[in-house]
Amino acid sequence: MGYQLELRHFNYFLAVAEELHYRKAAEKLCISQPGLSRQIKQMEEILEVKLFVRTKKKVSLTAAGEYLKSEIEFILNHLEVTKKQLRHIRDGNFGEVRIGFLGSAMQEVIPDLLIKLKDKFPGIQTNLEELSNNAQINAIVKDKLDMGFVRTARVPEGLNIEPVYTDTFSVVLPELYPLLTREFRDVGQLAEENFILFAQDYSPLYFDTVMSICEDAGFTPKVSHKSVHAQTIFKLVENNLGIAIIPTSLQYGFQMKVKFIELKNIPQRAVLSVCWKEDNRNPALRHCINLLLNQSR
C-alpha cells in the first residue's frame, strides 16, 4: 500500500524528536504509544530513511532525523505565521512584522519606526521581542522573526544587514565619583577601576569595541561583572561596584544615581544595524525596511 506524507506525520515526528521518548511524546499528542510508533515507522517507509535510533535505554535522532527536525520546525512555524497573516488580512490589516531588538534600539530607532508605521501604514501590526544578537539572527534564519536590530559586523549568507544608527560611547560613573566632566581627558584615567560590561555572548562586537577603547588608552580593563541589561549595569555602578562604557543613547529613560561622560574624541562608534532575511516574503516587512533606510540616510 502506498502511503502519502501528511501534516500529522510532521507533528508526530517533531514530538518524538523533542522528547526523545515515545511514551512522553504519545502523552503529549494524546495518542497511544503503539499508534505513535506505527506513524513514525510509516513516515520512515515513505521517506526511505531511518529517523531514529531506538534502544531499550534511549531514543536518539539519526543525522537524517536531525536535518528533518530543523526543516519541519521551519515548515510548521511558517504555516503558523501564514495563518496569522491571513487573519490580519481578513481583518483589513496589512499583516504583522515580528521585530527583535537590543535594548539600545528602544531608545532612538524603534519608537521612530513605530510612529512612522502608525502614520503611513496603520494596518501593520508589530510584535516586539528583546533578544541578544545571536538569538535574533537565529530566529531570523528560522523564520521566527522578520527583522532584528543588532550590533554585529557579519551575518550568515542569505541575510541582509544595513546600519541605521551610529552612536558615541559614554562612561558611566557613580553620581559622587570624584571626577568632573571638565577634568576628564581619556579612559586611561579609569584604568584601575573595575569595569562592568555587557556579556560577550550578548553582543560580541560591542564587547570587542569596548575592549579596544580601553586598549587604545593603554590598558586592559579588569572586568568584575557582566550583564545583558542596561538597568542592571547602571544599578551596579550606582552601588560603587564598578564603572561601565555604554552606547550614549542608553542613558535616557533611567533615573538612577549615576553620571555619564561622553567619549567624543575616540574613533570607536556603536553602530546599530537592521537585519532581515533576503527571501522573506512578508509584504509588511518591506514597508518597515523602506521607512528605516530612508530615515537613517
Automatic annotation (TrEMBL):
Source superkingdom: Bacteria
InterPro entries: LysR_HTH_N, LysR_subst-bd, WH-like_DNA-bd_sf, WH_DNA-bd_sf
UniProt GO MF annotations: DNA binding; DNA-binding transcription factor activity
Keyword tags: DNA-binding, Transcription, Transcription regulation
Pfam families given in the database record: HTH_1 (PF00126), LysR_substrate (PF03466)
Example of a GO cellular component annotation carried by this entry: protein-DNA complex
Boundaries of every HTH lysR-type domain copy: 5-62
Family: Belongs to the LysR transcriptional regulatory family.
Name by which UniProt lists this protein: DNA-binding transcriptional regulator, LysR family
